[in-house]
Design brief:
By secondary structure, this protein is α+β, with helices and mostly antiparallel strands. The protein is built from 16 helices and 19 strands. The strands form 6 sheets. Strands 11, 12, 13, 16 and 17 form a 5-stranded antiparallel β-sheet that branches.
Length: 544
């Protein structure tokens, strides 16, 4: 106990020191500034998770996706409301059986300049470039983590320079959304085959910014692409910025101090090291920051949850009554206030997060301690087990959530143990059915509820798919397959809700909260915006 109290005192002292340092840097940066007008043309941010590759076929993590999004384009793109918009494809058509997609390409999209292009140092993108890029995505020797994007593609071809055609093996309403992923970006064959694996650090694309310099783990610089094809509503060519500078401080606390001092323009997300200092318990900026910082927040397509392994041999895990008791046994709203300063939406609906068609806030679980207690007693009577207990396996960053649930459930007769293990270990263990109850999250690969429901399709059992809980229900499988052929949008959304409701009735998971994107910018930054996929799009950003 003495050690715990000592640690608490130390944490409070550290928090106090951190807050003092933040206030000092804010005060100092307001009093004295060495910034020049040129700084208003450079957008600076820190990537604490590092960047593994600037090759879009490896753009799996947010760090890589954010960087490659500045350098590359695909056939289509998403707007902030998750509607598919033209990009290099100016228009497209889908035939009557929903299997053939025909994309008409713009004829004014140029690759970034490079000496290998010859005399003019660049050339126009053609449909053959997409044919090459898609074949590369499927190349088993390259082993792109995004090859699954084309799983439902039968074939594709360049019909002519400006017409690219894709044929699917079955109808798939979410396919256009898949094509907006960075995996599907266009790359030039002659450059890729010259650099081979070194294309990761010598990227040539078509995006609003072009590659300039990369000192790995230190700094990455992009410059404005003066030939970029997109324009704003006033017909001014994008982007507005002259450059992007990315640093790689690994510590989130140091990152925030750099932001507070004005050395970087943007911070994404909340970290325990500064969340209480910058936000009130209701999720508002504290008054001391409102003069210098803007906060943007909105729904994020990420469901945070705990999952039961349905094939577990443990009696408690096999009991539907006990699984429901855990779902009813804690207050999600209170949890979000205490642990996240009100940032995040309590998951009282199903597994589909708020913001996606198919979401329904009436099909999940709310806080009903008496009902939870009754279900625990029912379990005891059915099994003769007078002291039921379960173990939650989690990572350190989410320990506080497990501890909150532990305290709440123990009040009503269920013993909760907590096992904290590294993230890499939990990923392998849950994929191989070695954990009975574990913490997980699902961030949308593409903005369609089918992506979330794929976690409960019986043919997707892990490790060969994302069904980590090994949930199986024949009716669910029937509806899931039916959704692929349903062309009526409203009917398909209704199917999604029915499937989500069916899953919740068996309670193979405990939805905790639907995440929110939170972004902090300096007051002089405008046009950054926000979107439910948390994509960083800098082509319309200005610094005043």
């Amino acid at each position: 106990m003495a050690v715990i109290i000592k640690n608490k005192i130390y944490r409070k002292y550290s928090t106090f020191c951190f807050l003092g340092l933040v206030l000092f840097t804010l005060f100092f940066s307001c009093k004295k500034s060495n910034k020049t007008n040129n700084d208003n043309l450079v957008f600076r941010y820190n990537e604490h998770k590092n960047i593994g590759s600037l090759d879009p076929v490896f753009a799996k993590d947010n760090a890589d996706i954010w960087a490659t999004n500045q350098l590359f384009n695909g056939l289509v793109q998403m707007n902030e409301k998750l509607n598919v918009q033209p990009c290099i494809a100016k228009k497209w058509s889908i035939n009557d059986n929903s299997l053939t997609y025909s994309f008409s390409l713009r004829n004014d999209v140029y690759f970034h300049k490079h000496k290998l292009f010859g005399k003019d140092s660049t050339r126009i993108v053609t449909a053959k470039d997409f044919e090459y890029s898609f074949n590369r995505l499927l190349d088993k020797q390259i082993a792109s983590p995004g090859s699954w994007v084309l799983n439902k593609v039968d074939n594709f071809k360049a019909v002519n320079d400006t017409l690219f055609q894709i044929k699917l093996t079955q109808p798939f309403p979410a396919f256009l959304g898949l094509l907006s992923m960075k995996y599907c970006s266009v790359v030039p064959k002659e450059i890729v085959e010259y650099y081979k694996s070194d294309f990761r650090s010598n990227p040539i694309g078509t995006g609003p910014f072009k590659f300039k310099r990369w000192e790995e783990n230190i700094k990455l610089v992009f410059r404005k692409n003066t030939l970029y094809f997109e324009k704003d509503v006033q017909k001014q060519r994008l982007p507005y910025l002259e450059a992007i500078a990315i640093t790689f401080l690994p510590d989130k606390q140091s990152e925030f101090l750099q932001f507070a001092q004005g050395n970087i323009d943007f911070v994404s997300g909340l970290d325990a090291s500064y969340k209480d200092e910058i936000l009130t318990t209701t999720g508002e900026l504290r008054p001391i920051y409102t003069a210098s910082i803007n906060m943007i927040r909105g729904p994020y397509l990420n469901t945070e949850y705990l999952a039961f392994y349905m094939d577990s041999k443990i009696t408690e895990i096999q009991s539907e009554s006990l699984r429901k008791a855990v779902n009813y046994g804690f207050d999600r709203k209170k949890m979000m206030i205490y642990l996240r300063n009100g940032v995040g939406i309590p998951a009282n609906g199903g597994f589909i997060p708020k913001g996606l068609p198919g979401y329904d806030n009436s099909i999940g679980y709310n806080h009903q301690p008496e009902k939870s207690k009754q279900l625990i007693e029912q379990y005891k009577e059915e099994t003769g087990d007078s002291k039921p207990e379960i173990t939650i396996t989690t990572i350190g960053n989410y320990l506080s959530f497990s501890e909150y649930i532990q305290r709440e459930l123990q009040k009503i007769g269920l013993i909760i143990n907590i096992d904290v293990i590294p993230g890499s270990t939990i990923r392998d263990a849950k994929a191989n059915g070695q954990l009975d109850l574990f913490r997980a999250s699902w961030v949308a690969d593409y903005p369609d509820a089918e992506n979330y429901l794929s976690l409960y399709y019986s043919k997707n059992f892990a490790p060969n798919g994302p069904n980590y809980s090994h949930y199986k229900n024949n009716q669910f499988d029937t509806w899931y397959e039916q959704a692929f052929t349903e062309t009526n949008t409203l009917k398909r959304e209704s199917l999604y809700t029915k499937m989500d409701s069916l899953v919740m009735q068996s309670a193979p998971v405990i939805p905790l909260f639907y995440d929110e994107v939170v972004r902090f910018t300096r007051k002089n930054v405008s046009g950054l915006g926000i979107n439910p996929t948390n994509l960083l799009d800098l082509k319309r950003v200005k610094k005043n």
